[in-house]
Amino acid sequence: MPLTFAQDSDAALPLYLVAPDGLDAVKARLTPSQAKWVEANGFTANIGEICILPDALGLSGALAGLGTKPARQRTRFALAAVRAKLPDAIFRLETDLDGEALTEQALGWLLSGYVFDKYAPSSAPKAQLVTPAGVDRAKVEIVAAGEALTRNLINTPASDMGPDELEAAARDLADCFGAAVTVVAGEDLLSHNLPMIHAVGRASPRAPRLIELNWGNSGPKLTLVGKGVCFDTGGLNIKPGASMGLMKKDMGGAATVLGLSHMIMALGLKVQLRVLIPAVENAISGNSFRPQDILVSRKGLTVEINNTDAEGRLVLADALALADEENPDLIVSMATLTGAARVAVGPDLAPFYATSPRDAAAIVNGAEKAADPVWQMPFWDPYETMIEPGIADLDNAPSGGFAGSITAALFLRRFVTQTPRYVHFDIYGWNPSAAPARPKGGIGQGHRALLEALSDLFAL
C-alpha cells in the first residue's frame, strides 16, 4: 500500500488533534451534545486516546490525543498512535500545530500505514488523511517512500536478500531516477584493488561485490557508504545463536543509504550523489579468513584480524578508501557496526561521529527538525593506540572491551585522509518493540536527520 495522503474531499471529516490543555477550547467548537459525549467517554487527550464523534447520520468526526509536551518528548508521532483505532473514513486534521511539529505528525501518519506483507497477509489501517494545510505533501510522501524502502530491505530475510538481491535493489532504484550503477564482483575485486571486501565475502557461494550508484552532475559531491553484510555468521569466530538471530539486518547501513538516496533523487536536490555499498555474506567454509590473518587494504594499510566477527569495518575500509580518492565534499558512512553503540545509547538513538564541528551541529539540528534522534560521539584521539596491534598497522578488534564504538570509528577514519569532512553513523537498524509509526522490525536511522541537514551542510 503506497504511503500517501488522500485527495482532498468535501466528505472529509474533522479529526481534532488536541493536547490536554487545549481540550476545553476544542469542546467549545463542538455542539453541546458532542461536548457532553466527549466528557461522558472520559477523553483526556493523552497520546493514543480517541473519541469518535457520532451524529444523527452516523460518524461526524473524531478527537485524537496529542498528549502533554513532556509526553510528546518521550513519544514521537502522537497522531500515528491513533490511526489504527479510527474507522474507515477520510479525515482532515484540525490542530494548532504548524511548522516542523505539524510535519512530524503528518509523516507519522503516513509511516503508520507501513506493513511488511511479503510473506503473510497483513492489514494496514483503513483511515485516510488529506494533506494538512501547511505540509509539503510531495516531500513528506517522498520521505515516507524512502523509509519504506529501507524497512523492506532490512525486513527481508537473508534467504531472499543476499548480495545479488541487494544489487538488484540498487539497480531498481537507479532505474527510477536515471542513475548509473556499476558493480565489481567476485575475483574481480582483487584486480580492482578491493582485497578486504573479497576476503570477508569469499567464503560464501554468494559472490561479494562493490555496488556503486552515481546520480547528478552539478552541485557539491556527496558520497554515501553503506555496510551491506547481508548475513553475518561471525565467520570462524562464530556468533552464538542468540546473537545471530537478527543478522539479516546487518545490511541496515546499505538499506539506509539507499532509502536516503531515494529521498535525495526524488526531491531533485542539487548534489552529485555517489553511493558505495560493499555487499557480502560473512560465511564459514575452508577458505574463510582467519583470526590472526593480516590483510592488506586498498589503502595499503595492513590489518591484523583478531576477530572475524568484526568484519563490517573491513569491507567499509576498502569502500571508504575508494570514496576518499575522489576527495568529495562530504563522505558519510552508515553501518550496523558495533554492539557497543547499543550498550551506550540503546536502540532508539543513532550515534554519529563527525570530523567537522559545523557538520555535527548541522546534523543535530536536522535531527530535531526531522524527529530522527541522533547523539554525537567523539573521535577520541587518545584511543588511537588501542587500534594499533604492533604486528600490523591496525587491529580490527582491540582487546579489553572498552570504547568499542569509538575505536571502530577511529579505525574507519584511518581510511579517510584526503577528504576533510567525514561523518560516520553506528546505527542499529531495528525497532525491538512497536511504537507509533515504527512497527517492530527494520527501520532507518539518521537518514532523515541527514536529509534535513543537507541545506546547512552544503548551503543548498
Automatic annotation (TrEMBL):
Q: Record's family?
A: Belongs to the peptidase M17 family.
Protein name in the entry = Peptidase B
What biological process terms from GO does the record include?
Answer: proteolysis
| GO CC terms | cytoplasm
Which keywords has UniProt assigned to this entry? Answer: Aminopeptidase, Hydrolase, Manganese, Protease
User: What's the top EC group for this one?
Assistant: hydrolase
Is Hydrolase one of the keywords UniProt gives this record? yes
One of its Pfam families is: Peptidase_M17
Q: Which SUPFAM superfamilies match?
A: Zn-dependent exopeptidases (SSF53187)
**EC code(s) of this entry:** 3.4.11.23
* PROSITE patterns to which the protein is assigned, alphabetical: CYTOSOL_AP
Instruction: Give this protein's Gene Ontology molecular function annotations.
Output: manganese ion binding; metalloaminopeptidase activity
